[in-house]
């Protein structure tokens, strides 16, 4: 009986460790401040960033964060512009259709934002 209990306990510990490792490997840290180096590139008429620029380096791991970034009024106005897709393309990042984000309707279409 004690052997089964010990085996079960070891299995729970191993499973917990494996799940934590998987979670850490998939976690994306969403930080809208990482968009700051991209602001000059979001403005129409400016040059697009090079793939090794700080802008591109910052957004490469942020794909799952773009809808959430619409909550930040500072960046929302840039992200909804067509130029944002151009910046993403220059960086090798596929930008999602932000109009499908629930945050788009709530935040970016309000007057004064």
Explain this structure to me?
This protein is mostly helical and 113 residues long. It has 7 helices and no strands. 16% of the residues are buried. The model is unreliable at 18-26 (pLDDT under 50).
Give the helices and strands, then pairings:
Layout: H1 2-26, H2 39-42, H3 54-59, H4 66-69, H5 73-79, H6 82-91, H7 102-108
Radius of gyration: 20 Å
- Parts with pLDDT < 50 across at least 5 consecutive residues: 18-26
| Whole-number mean pLDDT | 75
Q: Which structural class matches the secondary elements?
A: mainly alpha
The proportion of residues in beta strands is under 5%
- Please tally the helical runs, counting DSSP H or I stretches of 4 or more residues: 7
How far is the first residue's CA from the last residue's CA? 65 Å
Largest sheet: none
- SSE string, helices as H and strands as E: HHHHHHH
Write down the overall geometry.
globular
Measured as a percent range, the helix fraction is 55-70%
Task: Give the tally of β-strands.
Answer: 0
